[in-house]
TrEMBL record:
<comment type="similarity">
    <text>Belongs to the SecG family.</text>
</comment>
<dbReference type="GO" id="GO:0005886">
    <property type="term" value="C:plasma membrane"/>
</dbReference>
<keyword id="KW-0653">Protein transport</keyword>
<dbReference type="GO" id="GO:0043952">
    <property type="term" value="P:protein transport by the Sec complex"/>
</dbReference>
<keyword id="KW-0813">Transport</keyword>
<dbReference type="GO" id="GO:0065002">
    <property type="term" value="P:intracellular protein transmembrane transport"/>
</dbReference>
<comment type="function">
    <text>Involved in protein export. Participates in an early event of protein translocation.</text>
</comment>
<dbReference type="Pfam" id="PF03840">
    <property type="entry name" value="SecG"/>
</dbReference>
<keyword id="KW-0472">Membrane</keyword>
<keyword id="KW-1003">Cell membrane</keyword>
<keyword id="KW-1133">Transmembrane helix</keyword>
<keyword id="KW-0811">Translocation</keyword>
<dbReference type="GO" id="GO:0015450">
    <property type="term" value="F:protein-transporting ATPase activity"/>
</dbReference>
<keyword id="KW-0812">Transmembrane</keyword>
<dbReference type="InterPro" id="IPR004692">
    <property type="entry name" value="SecG"/>
</dbReference>
<protein>
    <recommendedName>
        <fullName>Protein-export membrane protein SecG</fullName>
    </recommendedName>
</protein>
<feature type="transmembrane region" description="Helical">
    <location>
        <begin position="54"/>
        <end position="76"/>
    </location>
</feature>
Length: 117
């Protein structure tokens, strides 16, 4: 169970980091307006419209992976062992309190040693 939680957490963190990178690489909706007036936006790595399709689909897949791993972590994180039932306070009442060690006597402070009139 612990290995599964570690794998889910790793998948969630990797998908989040890659998704943030992909979102930052994508152009906004208003970026095409600048290309229409000659600022040269068509010379990109994936072509004029290929980057939008590839990056948006990859972002959607990573968002789905992130969402599924979050649901898995929430499910396994809320799972309780079969032996524990009831609230935390009820379980705490069943546990015996820890013995308290005797505290040594503190010597009198300097103010107690000053003679009074």
């Amino acid at each position: 169970m612990n290995v599964l939680l570690t794998i889910l957490l790793a998948v969630q963190m990797l998908s989040a980091v890659v998704m943030v990178g992909l979102i930052l690489v994508q152009h906004g909706k208003g970026a095409d307006m600048g290309a229409a007036f000659g600022s040269g936006g068509s010379g990109s790595l994936f072509g004029a419209s290929g980057s939008a399709n590839f990056l948006s689909r990859t972002t959607a897949v990573l968002a789905t992976v992130f969402f599924v791993s979050t649901l898995g972590l929430a499910y396994f994180g809320s799972a309780r062992p079969a032996a524990s039932s009831g609230s935390v306070l009820e379980n705490a009442a069943l546990v015996a309190p820890a013995p308290v060690a005797a505290i040594p006597a503190v010597p009198a402070s300097g103010a107690a040693q000053i003679p009074s009139k």
